[in-house]
Amino acid sequence: MTLPTAAIPNSPTLFITTRAGDIRSVRGMIGHSVMESIRDAQIEEIQAICGGACACCTCHVLVDAEQVELLPPLSAEEDALLDGSSVRTLMSRLSCQLEVTEKLDGLRLTIAPEE
């Protein structure tokens, strides 16, 4: 039986700002992607068309500038995909490429503007 993420002790909390400016608290499941956590929280602004295969940019998020150092560096593949985005910033990441870990507890992300 799988427990809902909210019922899992010590699951990191992510704070997601929607395009409308609403802040949603989302519980992440360690070992899953941030994209999966956002999708499971039914934040529909993340389309994740490729299902997390790093083949599109529909899970584009902007990481809080003060927290960028918590994340692993961009892979060449992720960097190339983000290069095709007209709304890319220095804080841009693909949420499918960010694994939820304990150190991401409190991570603040904003859903990137639509292209």
Feature tags:
single chain; 115 residues; alpha+beta; Ubiquitin-like (UB roll)
Q: Would you kindly provide a written description of the structure presented here, covering whatever features stand out?
A:
The N and C termini lie far apart (39 Å). The protein contains 2 helices and 5 strands; from the N terminus they run E-E-H-E-H-E-E. The chain has one domain: Beta-grasp domain (Ubiquitin-like (UB roll), Roll), CATH 3.10.20.30. It has a 5-stranded mixed beta sheet. The protein is of the alpha+beta class.
Quick summary:
The protein has 115 residues and is α+β, with helices and mostly antiparallel strands. The chain is built from two helices and five strands, in the order ββαβαββ.
Our measurement of the CA-to-CA distance between the termini, rounded to an integer number of angstroms, reads 39 Å
Secondary structural class: alpha+beta
Rg over CA atoms, rounded to whole Å, is 13 Å
- Number of contiguous helices: 2
Helix content: 10-25%
What share of residues are in beta strands? 15-25%
CATH topology (fold) name: Ubiquitin-like (UB roll)
Write the SSE topology.
Blueprint: E1 13-17, E2 23-27, H1 34-40, E3 60-63, H2 76-83, E4 92-94, E5 108-111
Parallel strand pairs: 1-5
Antiparallel strand pairs: 1-2, 3-4, 3-5
